[in-house]
């Protein structure tokens, strides 16, 4: 086998090994509501969630129509597939807040976007308003 063929074969083997290793870190979730990742609005559906070694998280709809990248505020350093997603809910709006590992510990936490902060203020305002009942005669 000549040198060029050996290098090509080695590169192919390395690429297959990398793909196999990274495939293990992909998790899937069927999310029954629309949600936001940062400012990106994602419709309800089935999603792939993949933490990358670079520290970002790739979130994409299985059919590939929608995708977003999230940069965590805090991370445990693990790139293993998360076991659960945590969303903050304000009224009918959902925001991705955290990825949790199999033991229930936070794996990655995301900061609040401007949209989430606004939704949080609006919901807090509504909650402070409450309701007043007036009896009818």
What does this structure look like?
The protein has 137 residues and is of the alpha+beta class. The protein has one domain. It is built from two helices and ten strands. A four-stranded antiparallel sheet has the order 1-4-5-6, with no helix packed on it. The longest helix has 21 residues. It starts with a helix and ends in an 8-residue tail after the last helix.
Strand elements, count: 10
Q: Please state the average pLDDT score.
A: 74
Spatial strand arrangement across the major sheet: 1-4-5-6
What structural class do the secondary elements suggest? alpha+beta
Written as H for each helix and E for each strand, in order along the chain, the element string is HEEEEEEEEEEH
Summarize the main sheet: 4 strands, antiparallel
Our Rg estimate from Cα atoms comes to 21 Å
Number of helices: 2
Helices, strands, pairings?
Elements: H1 3-23, E1 27-31, E2 35-37, E3 40-42, E4 45-51, E5 57-61, E6 67-70, E7 74-75, E8 84-90, E9 93-100, E10 106-109, H2 114-129
Sum up the structure in keywords:
137 residues, 27% helix, disordered C terminus, four-stranded antiparallel β-sheet, single chain, globular, 10 strands
């Amino acid at each position: 086998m000549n040198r060029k063929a050996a290098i090509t074969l080695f590169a192919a083997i390395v690429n297959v090994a990398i793909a196999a290793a990274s495939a293990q870190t992909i998790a899937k979730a069927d999310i029954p509501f629309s949600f936001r990742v940062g400012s990106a609005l994602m419709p309800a559906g089935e999603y792939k969630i993949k933490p990358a070694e670079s520290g970002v998280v790739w979130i994409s709809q299985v059919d590939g129509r929608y995708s977003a990248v999230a940069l965590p505020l805090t991370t445990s350093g693990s790139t293993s597939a998360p076991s659960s997603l945590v969303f903050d809910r304000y009224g009918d709006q959902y925001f991705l807040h955290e990825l949790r590992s199999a033991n229930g510990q936070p794996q990655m936490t995301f900061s609040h976007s401007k949209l989430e902060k606004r939704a949080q203020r609006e919901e807090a305002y509504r909650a402070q308003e409450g309701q007043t009942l007036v009896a009818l005669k």
